[in-house]
Amino acid sequence: MNCRFTMAAHMLGMLACAEREAKGSLTSESMARSIQTNPVVVRRLLRDLARAGLVETKRGVGGGVSLARGPEEITLRDVYEAVEEDAELLGRYPTGPSQSCDMAPMVAEYLEGVVGRAESAFKQSLETTTLAMMSRDLAARARRKSSPRRRAAGA
Prior knowledge:
By secondary structure, the protein is mainly alpha-helical. It has helices at residues 4-20, 28-35, 39-51, 76-84, 103-127, 131-154; strands at residues 55-58, 64-67.
């Protein structure tokens, strides 16, 4: 897995928060600033997310990006599958294990079982987390983070 999932989840988290706060759509430029990447990278991810039916984009004045479905209907697994498709969570042998070593195929088979279980657990975890849950958790963290400043300002 590379950073595409992390960036896509970040972007969709921003969209879910913007929707919750009734701020409307966001631009690829604003998302790129938040992720600290080039807007072209964001636009490429948005194409994958739009193809998967997770976002809608509108060009021109007043345009931007918004969620195509409610945040409670989009899981992090949906995001992962939209941008990672056939990517392996953990790398395997680039050319396969050595066939001239008696142990190599057994090690490969054993690790395939371990990695397969790990990938299954990872995807299950993503499936149980929606963008709505992520948005609520982020809002709660933001409130907790700003609470000491509010108390200090009021003292």
